[in-house]
Amino acid sequence: MKKKNAEEMVLEIKDKSELMVDLAYSSILYDNKTIAKEVYELENFIDALYHNLQKDTLEEVKKGKLSVDDALTLMKLAQAGEQIADAAQEIADVELRDVELHPIIKMSIRESDVVFTKVQVESKSILCGKTLGQLKLASETGMLVIAMRHKDRWLYGPNKKTRINSGDILFAKGPEDGEKHLINLATGKTNEI
Amino acid sequence: MKKKNAEEMVLEIKDKSELMVDLAYSSILYDNKTIAKEVYELENFIDALYHNLQKDTLEEVKKGKLSVDDALTLMKLAQAGEQIADAAQEIADVELRDVELHPIIKMSIRESDVVFTKVQVESKSILCGKTLGQLKLASETGMLVIAMRHKDRWLYGPNKKTRINSGDILFAKGPEDGEKHLINLATGKTNEI
C-alpha cells in the first residue's frame, strides 16, 4: 500500500471522525451495540493515524519539506478531527452503558434537521444489484449511507463501488423528505430515483 | 420565549455543533473570516447552553422529575456536542491565524466524500423568490445550505422558511454530483430541480 502523505492523513481523520459521530448517533437510535463497538474500533484507528501524522509532519519539517506554518495547520486540523472522534466515542458510550434510553431522548436525537434512518432492501427494489455510484443516492435523495449490513457482514462508510443487494440493511442520514424517498425505493414502492 | 427543556437543549447543542464544524471548514476553503468569527460566536452560545443544561438537569434530578440514568445520558450527549463545538473552533482558528493556507491543504479538505461549495444566485435562477422548504434542495440535490449572504446580512444554518433571492451567496455541502446540480440551478443553467 502506498504510504499516505500528511494531507491524505488529515483528510482521512476528517472523514472518519465525522462518520464516527453519525454511526454513534445511529447506534443509540437503533439500540445497536455492533455499530457502537465499531466506533471504538475506529477511535483506535484514528489515534494511530494521528500519531503517524504527527511523526511524519515533524520529520518533513526537519527535512525542510514542509514549512512550520503548514505543519501547524495540518496538526491543528488533525487534532480537531481527533477531538471529534473522541466525542463520537462518548456518544457511543451512551449506547454501550446498557441503560435503556428514554424514548424522549431518542426522539430528540431523531428530530434533528438531519434524520437517521434504517431500512431493509426488498427483492423487488430498484436498488438491488446496483452500486451506490450508479444510484447516486446521495445527490438524488439527499440520503448518505453511513453503514450497511449484508447478511452477517457489516460495512461502515461504504463508497461508490459498494453494491446493494436484496436483504441488505441500510443505515443512512439526510433530510426528512429524503428519508421517505429512500424507504420507498428500498421497499419497492417506487422505482423513480 | 418558551423555556427549553433538557432534551431540546441537547438537540440544539447537537445541531449547532455540527453546523459549526461545517462552517469552520467552509471558512478555510473560502478564506472567509466572517464565517470563522461566527464559529466563535456560536461557541459562546453553546457554552451558555451547556451550562444551562447542566443546571436544569441537576434541578430536575433533585425534584425527582428526571432519573439519574436519563440525566447522565443527557449530560454525556451534551458534553460530546460541546467537545465537537470546541473542535470546530480549533478549525476556525486555522482561518483566523492569518497565515496563507497551502493550496494542497485546501484541496485535501475539499476532496472529502462530502464537498463544500459556494455559489451566487443569478436573477434568472429558478431558486429566486422560493424558500428552502419549497425547493427541497437538500433532498432533491443532496446539498445542505449551511450559510448564506443576503446583501450585507449573513444567515447561518438557514431553515425551511428561508427565502433565496437573486444575488444571494449560498454556502452548501453535499455530494459532488449534487454540487454540479446546485451550481446549475443557481446560475440558471437548468430549471429542473
Short description:
Chain A is an alpha+beta fold. Chain A is built from seven helices and four strands; from the N terminus they run H-H-H-H-E-H-H-E-E-E-H. Chain A has helices spanning 6-29, 33-62, 68-96, 103-110, 132-135, 137-141, 176-186; strands at 115-120, 144-150, 153-156, 169-174.
Walk me through what this model shows.
The structure is a homodimer of 193-residue chains. Chain A is α+β, with helices and mostly antiparallel strands and 193 residues long. The two termini of chain A are 37 Å apart. Chain A is built from seven helices and four strands, in the order ααααβααβββα. In chain A, strands 1-4-2-3 form a four-stranded antiparallel β-sheet, with helices on both faces. In chain A, a hairpin with a 2-residue loop joins β2 and β3 (153-156). Chain A has helices spanning 6-29, 33-62, 68-96, 103-110, 132-135, 137-141, 176-186; strands spanning 115-120, 144-150, 153-156, 169-174. Chains A and B meet through α1, α3, α4, α6 and α7 of A and α1, α3, α4, α6 and α7 of B.
